[in-house]
Amino acid sequence: MAKVEAAYRAGKGSKLEIDKAFYDGLVEGKANRTLIETVKVPMREGMAWEVPAGYVFRIRVPEGPQVGDFNMWNRHDPRERMWASRTRQIQRAHISTHDRIWSTLPFLRPMVTIIDDTLASYGEDEQGGRVHDLLGTRCDPYVNHLLTGEDFDHHCHSNLVRAVLPYGLTEFDVHDVLNVFQCTGLNEDDQYFMKTCPARKGDYLEFFAEIDLLCALSCCPGGDLSVDLWGPEAQDPLSTCHPLEVEIYKLEDKVLEGWKPPVSPNYRGQHGLQKPSIDWCAEKDRLQRKD
Ligand SMILES: [Zn+2]
């Protein structure tokens, strides 16, 4: 297949270009770091955590293969949250080291930059599968009821809802996810497929927080996705479920010298809305004076 160039490309000096040397200098073994918190995400549950700007967090597989559904908000304003579809366009449909996750409008700035990924070498498999998926979204009890007629309360959507309630967020704040450790693609009929999770104990995906964040992760009830959730072969995949873990690290100050949180584009237009050509208040005053 002929290669068609990407629509969104980073030219020299573009805002899409990243300083790879800076981010490569933040990884384990290059910069000193202190573990400040470990968050355990039990199987079929969700957890939320905060990360200050300039810190690093790592989502890891502590026992066995398991996919996770990840959400993220600006800690101070949940209207700014990760934008999966724009990230797909600006970066890729499956993300890895040096890719960023971008925020919704009107904020549009990188919320995190991925600095390390033990599955980076997975690339594309013989069926077109790739890892860390932005194509799909979370499993939820509504689509489950639609397909099976049954109620189940531990889908990723519900796990994320319960995780963020203590932070003042609701079901309406939960949004399209990054499917961490999840191998997916589009088949020849352009339909979404999921394959067995290739992650092994010790694998991780690591992020640098560009702004203060609230994050949430669900340990998908689908486990390693080796068992169908829906369709003729469907079974309960409980035996394939494992926990996930998150580690939050503070970096030594000197490696962050010169780094600043990214700012939003300085768009000053008003979406084409113009100031009215007639000042109606002044006109009303003039007519009233005439009376
Ligand atoms: Zn799920």
Question: How would you sum up this structure, described in words?
Answer:
The chain has 291 residues and is of the alpha+beta class. The chain has one domain. It is 14% helix and 28% strand. Strands 2, 4, 5, 8, 9, 10 and 12 form a seven-stranded antiparallel beta sheet that branches. The relative contact order is 0.24. Bound molecules: zinc ion (ZN). The site of zinc ion (ZN) has 8 residues, from loops.
Tell me the layout of helices and strands.
Blueprint: H1 20-24, E1 33-41, E2 46-51, E3 56-60, E4 68-74, E5 77-81, H2 84-90, E6 100-102, E7 110-117, E8 130-133, H3 141-148, H4 156-164, E9 178-186, E10 192-195, E11 204-209, E12 213-219, E13 244-251, H5 280-290
Antiparallel strand pairs: 1-13, 2-12, 3-11, 3-13, 4-5, 4-9, 4-12, 6-7, 7-11, 8-9, 9-10
Instruction: Find the count of extended strands (DSSP E, 2+ residues).
Output: 13
| Alpha-carbon Rg, integer | 22 Å
Helix amount: 10-25%
**H/E element order:** HEEEEEHEEEHHEEEEEH
**Poorly predicted sequence stretches spanning 5 or more consecutive residues:** none
How is the biggest beta sheet arranged? 7 strands, antiparallel
The chain-level structural class is alpha+beta
| List of distinct ligands in this structure | zinc ion
Helical element count? 5
Mean pLDDT score: 95
Total domain count: 1
